[in-house]
Write a structure and sequence with these properties.
The structure holds two protein chains of two kinds. Chain A is α/β, with parallel strands linked by helices. In chain A, 47% of the residues lie in helices and 17% in strands. In chain A, strands 2-1-3-4 form a four-stranded parallel β-sheet, sandwiched between helices. By secondary structure, chain B is of the alpha/beta class. Classes of the chains: A alpha/beta, B alpha/beta.
Chain lengths: 125, 157
């Protein structure tokens, strides 16, 4: 199975910052592509997504569980095979994802949700 | 209360609408007027996903919206009405005299459109339609979020 590609879809420059952080921490480059909805209507965002995903299976990591980033991602996933969509992207799930890309998009999406959720907690002072 | 905002936004329901406007206006319902979306359960599910459960989402065609506008306007709650393009706004304003104000919230780049504001791109034909609405007595302004200044139609068309 070829390695999965991750595409982060966000408002403003969140996606770009997350990709930069993952590369800084792991040294892995090219596993993730950022897409911003900045200045995009529905059609322009769909085109940005199409170019970012390219060929092959992918997981789309969306910032919020609603809004233009999610609606565009779900439309794209509906029209293409081997695309999974995860919402609530965070750095922890991306760090796990880049090391586990030899699985199906659906499995990778479930794994990302687990890794991301585990990172959210109230810590002792 | 009433429909506090009539908005053209080609992203329809998204963060600026639900959070940016929805929070300060304390919105309880959103009316999405779009002939295509009103006929698609899948599209409706998609747009509902971005809205907290306490906010009701109503989907309507232009025809249905024109018929329902009096009841939405007299609703005790605060609502927002959304359309995705200028033609839908023109069609609705032509059928419903309740449309007295129009907020241009986001019309983005597409071939043939020129940048008028950071968040408003229009063809000359679209700009003319907005001016025509204004000439007909509709107060047309551009404003993406409530904290921004409302720009009169004459300043961006």
């Amino acid at each position: 199975m070829s390695d999965l590609h991750g595409v982060i879809v966000s408002h403003a420059a969140v996606a770009q910052a997350l990709v930069s952080a993952v590369t800084t921490i792991t040294g892995i480059d090219g596993a993730l592509t950022p897409v911003s909805n900045e200045g995009c209507g529905t059609e322009a965002l769909a085109e940005r997504l199409r170019q970012a995903v390219g060929e092959g299976p992918a997981v789309l990591f969306v910032d919020l569980p609603g809004g233009s980033c999610l609606t565009s991602s779900l439309r794209y996933a509906k029209q293409h095979a081997d695309i999974a969509v995860v919402t609530g992207v965070n750095l922890a799930m991306l760090l796990d994802f880049v090391f586990h890309r030899d699985i199906s998009p659906a499995d990778a999406a479930r794994r990302a949700v687990d890794a991301g959720a585990k990172a959210i907690r109230v810590t002792a002072a | 209360m009433t429909l506090a905002l009539y908005r053209i936004d080609d992203r329809l329901i998204h963060g600026q609408v639900v959070v940016g406007w929805g929070q300060p206006l304390d919105v309880s319902f959103i009316v999405l007027v779009d002939d295509e979306v009103s006929g698609s359960d899948w599209e409706q599910d998609l747009y509902r996903m971005g809205v907290p459960p306490q906010i009701e989402v109503i989907f309507a065609s232009v025809e249905q919206a024109a018929a329902q506008l009096p009841s939405w306007e007299s609703d005790a709650r605060v609502g927002i009405l959304l359309v995705g393009d200028i033609d839908t706004a023109v069609a609705l304003a032509g059928r419903a005299p309740q449309v007295r104000r129009l907020n241009v919230g986001g019309i983005h780049h597409r071939t043939g459109r020129k940048e008028r504001l950071r968040f408003v791109y229009l063809t000359d034909d679209e700009a003319a339609k907005l001016k025509q609405l204004a000439a007909g007595g509709v107060e047309v302004t551009a404003q993406d979020v409530p904290t921004a200044r409302a720009i009169p139609v004459g300043d961006f068309t």
